[in-house]
Design a protein that fits this description.
The protein is of the alpha+beta class. It has 2 domains: 44 residues; 162 residues, no CATH class. The protein contains 5 helices and 6 strands. The strands form 2 sheets. It has a 4-stranded mixed sheet with strand order 3-4-5-6. Strands 1-2 form a two-stranded antiparallel sheet. A hairpin with a 4-residue loop joins strand 1 and strand 2. Helix 2 runs antiparallel to helix 4. The longest helix has 38 residues. It is rod-shaped, with a radius of gyration of 31 Å. The N and C termini lie far apart (110 Å).
């Protein structure tokens, strides 16, 4: 025989459990409705798309060792460093395409970084080793960091290697006129040559591409 007080206590606890379950269910439903309402009313942020800008690529041709300007509308970022990298990436994509006049494998992924920095002693430049963006009114040097995969797979030969480097220099200068000098690194380190011939230890001037643009030997 169960004592009466235990029976009463059992039913009290049962009723409390049912009541708490009902409250928790209501709270869960309210939270779910608020979550749904938030998903509906919160606007979805539109992806940021870089505006298209007119760019000029100085495209190399092995047939006559020349550089020919090619105008393209490209979505380019606002940062000068990233803009230079995107333009050069498009140039190397052209070289990696089937039937290219200057076939070089690798494409845009062959360039990891491009840094712009004031030329030492240049007019209007600002001091500081960390300066990397465009300096108004001053000449700048572009440091182009290539991948070792690109250098190792580049066709060997003084003419084809030099033509690649000159096309990069000329393309940088055509789109960023303040770039007067260009240096090349491979995986962030100095390398003696591109693929056994063209010197990567020297500083290239933007005007070095003049002979190639006119169709002469670089």
């Amino acid at each position: 025989m169960i004592p009466r007080y235990q029976t009463i206590l059992f039913f009290v606890l049962l009723a409390a459990s049912i009541a708490m379950g009902a409250v928790l269910w209501q709270l869960r439903e309210r939270a779910h409705q608020r979550l749904l309402a938030g998903e509906v009313t919160t606007p979805t942020a539109a992806p940021q798309v870089a505006p298209e800008v007119q760019a000029t690529l100085m495209v190399a041709s092995d047939a006559d060792d020349s550089l020919t300007p090619q105008a393209l509308a490209l979505p380019l970022p606002s940062s000068a460093n990233e803009r230079a990298r995107a333009i050069l990436g498009k140039l190397l994509d052209l070289y990696a395409a089937p039937g290219a006049a200057h076939p070089v494998p690798g494409g845009a992924s062959s360039i990891t970084q491009v840094f712009l920095m004031p030329v030492a002693g240049g007019a209007g430049t600002s001091a500081g080793a960390g300066a990397s963006e465009q300096t108004a009114g001053g000449a700048e040097m572009a440091v182009v960091n290539l991948t070792s995969a690109f250098a190792n797979s580049h066709p060997s030969g003084i003419e084809t290697e030099t033509l690649t480097l000159l096309s990069i220099c000329a393309t940088l200068h055509a789109n960023l006129p303040q770039v007067s000098e260009v240096r090349f690194l491979v995986d962030g380190q100095q390398r003696a040559t591109l693929a056994g011939h063209a010197d990567l230890t020297r500083t290239y001037l933007a005007t070095d591409a003049g002979a190639a643009q006119s169709g002469g030997q670089p």
